[in-house]
Amino acid sequence: MTTLSSDLPLPPPGDTLHRRTSGEQTVQYIRRLVFDGRLRQGDRVPQDEIARALGVSRIPVREALLSLEREGWVTIKPHRGAYIGALDEAVVRDHNALYGLVYGFAARRATERSTPEMVARLRDISAELGKRDDPADVARLNHEFDRLIMDAASSPRLRAVARAMVGIVPGNFFALVPGAIKVERAGSRAILAAVRAKDPERAAEAYARKLDQQGALVAELFTARGLFSATGAENGRPTNGAGPAGTATPTATPTPPLTAGRTAGRRPTGSSDR
Fold it and tell me: What is the pLDDT of residues 211-267, one digit of tens each?
């Protein structure tokens, strides 16, 4: 077990933290520390250092830790502090499977209530996805596609559930997860084809399949970064420190510097930071 101390300063928060509340910013920052290997399973979360790095009080840090405990990222021990919990492949795959259920349900309802205008817009977005390689563009188009499906589903309850879901990859999903753009393109085409055919079940299955495939890519990435606990190996899963087919763990991507002048706000409904 290790604990970051004041002589090992935390990296500055990155651009991906803009337009969030201080609590959401802190949650995302702690996830990024885990993703970059700065905090690992069993490490004590350095609350004071995180508050200083983000320029916030201890209150949003405590709120963030409570949120992360509900998600399974940390364990809070009374009078001792918060510690990074165990991640394994099942956690990652379940996360994306839940996204698939929520957006699959939305696709089912959207297909039942589709209009020619909605289908035409989905077609335009899917076509744009096929032309764009920049992760920022893909994330924007993915958000538009998901939002259009959610709007067409016309379910306030479903929208509330989607908003409550949080991404497991801290940052632009399509910049960080190799192969995610290719899966997104194929998935959007399959969903569009099902909506155009007015086949609700096929649309739901296409959404679930796309997110399941992206979940597999995230699991590969987390394995390569050594983020899964050793417990996973006891269940036939890869152990820490080795990538797919025994490849070496790549060097973690440094957290980029914070851009000045950003304001806080709510994370948009969508799946670009799954």
Answer: 999 999 999 999 998 888 765 444 443 333 333 333 333 333 344 333 323 333 333
Between CA 10 and CA 128 the distance in angstroms is: 39
Per-residue model confidence as pLDDT tens digits over 34-73: 999 899 989 999 999 999 999 999 999 999 999 999 888 8
Contact residues for 8 (Cβ-Cβ < 8 A; gap 6+): none
The pTM for the full model equals: 0.74
Tokens of 51: 């508050």
